[in-house]
Design brief:
Strand order of the largest sheet of chain B: 5-6-7-2-8-9
Helix content of chain B: 25-40%
Oligomer: heterodimer
Helix content of chain A: 55-70%
CATH superfamily of the largest domain in chain B: P-loop containing nucleotide triphosphate hydrolases
Strand order of the largest sheet of chain A: 2-3-1-4
CATH class of the largest domain in chain B: Alpha Beta
Order of helices and strands of chain B: EEHEEHEHHHEHEHEEE
Structural class of chain A: alpha+beta
CATH architecture of the largest domain in chain B: 3-Layer(aba) Sandwich
Radius of gyration of chain B: 18 Å
Low-confidence stretches of chain B: 213-220
CATH topology of the largest domain in chain B: Rossmann fold
Shape of chain A: elongated
Strand content of chain B: 15-25%
Shape of chain B: globular
């Protein structure tokens, strides 16, 4: 009997029961897409951080060369690089590390020492005064013609392009989900207004302002948006957790370890609030616009 | 006044209601009684002509001021128009809640009025479980709870026996004595001859007024209407 002021003067409508579940589905999709785009951005950051300021020098094997001669060539180059201005560190990768890098392609059991593999030198630049890439390339080819300088540039650009495109697609889907949510709420509010036409007319005739009538629908939309958003985010978080568990078992050097940071979770937790706000705002505008047509 | 592109329902309707006056509105079914009342409770706008309500020309009143005017008008609808999913208490409380009155005040006033109209035992009942007469009293209570300046009733005695009809008329007279201007649309010749009030008679969209000798036409009433074209 005692209702809070502005509380629902609308009766429960059976068709409205479906709305939170549709919003939940939308939030779920938005949650996964948003998490995906955040992870991709994080991944790109991590890769770029790891790779900028470093180059790899490949020392190619020469036909008929013994292991000792090759090791000698590599050692000379390392010494040369270490003396070069702007190079902070140069280090020949031990065979074990090269084997680890090749493992995804060749499997763990391959006899690598029987293969004519190039040797790798990892070069880290002094970030404050990195050397010119061209000068470095000339110096290396003068010292030993069978070297290739790889500054990761091409690979990094392509990867950045791909990840950027994936991120854009994910953001686009999140935006689409937002638009669809607005559409659902408009549709639900319109059908709610049709179902409650008598209530609306009576309230209107006894002197209710448009915003008062709108508030009845806003309250409904707000609770539907919030409930749907919460269900969606709980399901989404559960899925992400399961995926991260599965990823933890994956043992590979291909992917740097990436996980959602606290602020990422905060952004995701904002989704139910966003759906509630969107639902509330949409319902208000839908109702007020149609009430303006009444006398 | 016309609906869509149909014929004019009301054509020559010029009258003025003095504050605190009491009028019956008569006419055959389809004569336009309900249409006239709808114009008066601001459910319709006239297609031509001038309506002045509480000294405001309703054609020029901005949309957002109309609710304030409506709150000064109590309406007893012919078919009651109670909200069936709300209790009798909540139905009667509606005009106060809409006007933003505090909850404690709402409770006090609504309880008092429901007691006064003999519905104290049915506060929590929903309208469909009430008898026709009880529903009518809920509708009347809702119309008068906010102490309106103008009370409009469309066939308020249509669903009750004659004795009940007379009792309701006494209730309206009591409100009238407290200053509320009253217009009651009715078919009942018995009521009209029993209660001596001026009669507005509608026929073929034309309004004629029969004034009892005691009543002189006042200049500035709460409601005035002319059938003339606006300039």
């Amino acid at each position: 009997m005692i209702r809070r002021h502005g509380d629902l003067l609308l009766s429960r409508e059976p068709s409205a029961r479906l709305v939170p579940w549709i919003i939940a589905l939308m939030t779920y999709v938005a949650c996964l897409m948003l998490a995906g785009s955040l992870l991709l951005a994080e991944l790109l950051d991590r890769w770029t951080d790891d790779l900028t300021g470093t180059v790899t020098v490949q020392v190619m094997p020469v036909e008929g060369e013994s292991v000792e001669v090759m090791t000698d060539r590599v050692d000379k180059l390392v010494t040369l690089l270490q003396r070069t201005h702007g190079v902070a560190a140069a280090r020949a990768l031990p065979s074990a590390e090269i084997a680890a890098l090749l493992e995804p392609w060749l499997g763990g059991g391959a006899r690598l020492d029987e293969l004519p593999l190039p040797r790798l030198i990892d070069v880290t630049f002094d970030e404050t005064s990195p050397p010119s890439m061209a000068a470095l390339r000339t110096m290396l080819s003068n010292a030993d013609p069978a070297t290739v300088l790889d500054d990761h540039g091409v690979w990094q650009d392509q990867l950045a392009g791909l990840i950027g495109a994936l991120g854009a697609v994910a953001s686009f889907i999140v935006a689409l989900v937002g638009v669809a949510t607005v559409g659902i709420v408009i549709f639900a509010t319109r059908s709610g207004m049709a179902a409650h036409q008598e209530v609306i007319e009576v309230l209107h005739l006894i002197g209710a302002r448009d915003v008062f009538i709108a508030r009845q629908f806003q309250n409904l939309a707000l609770s539907q948006g919030l409930r749907g958003g919460l269900i969606g985010i709980v399901l989404g978080a559960a899925t992400l957790w399961a995926l991260s568990r599965a990823a933890a078992h994956l043992d590979t050097s291909m992917l740097p370890p990436v996980s959602l940071a606290t602020w990422h979770w905060a952004v995701l937790a904002g989704l139910p609030l966003a759906t509630a706000v969107i639902a509330n705002w949409t319902a208000k505008h839908t109702v007020v616009r149609s009430l303006r047509k009444l006398v | 006044m016309r609906y869509g592109t149909g014929p004019e329902v009301l054509r020559e309707v010029t009258f003025s209601l003095a504050p605190g006056s009491f009028h019956f509105l008569t006419g055959r079914s389809g004569a336009g009684k309900s249409s006239l009342l709808k114009l008066m409770y601001l459910a319709h706008r006239p297609s031509r002509g001038l309506i002045t309500l509480f000294d405001e020309d309703i054609a020029t009143v901005p949309h957002n001021r109309l609710p304030m005017l409506r709150r000064r008008i109590g309406v007893v609808f012919q078919e009651f128009r109670l909200l069936n999913h709300l209790s009798a208490f909540d139905n009667v409380a509606l005009p106060l809640r809409v006007a933003g009155v505090r909850d404690s005040t709402v409770r006090k006033h609504v309880k008092e009025l429901l007691q006064w109209t003999g519905l104290a035992d049915h506060m929590n009942a929903r309208p469909p479980t009430l008898s026709g007469g009880q529903q009518q009293r809920v509708a009347i209570a809702r119309a008068i709870i906010a102490k309106p300046n103008l009370l409009l009733a469309d066939e308020p005695t249509g669903n009750v026996d004659e004795a009940m009809g007379v009792r309701l008329l006494y209730l309206f007279e009591e409100l009238n004595r407290m200053g509320t201007t009253i217009v009651i649309a009715t078919h009942s010749e018995a009521l009209i001859s029993r209660f001596h009030h001026p009669v507005l008679h509608l026929e073929g969209g034309v309004l004629t007024t029969t004034m009892p000798p005691a009543d002189g036409g006042a200049a500035s009433g709460p409601f005035r209407s002319t059938g003339e074209h606006r300039p």
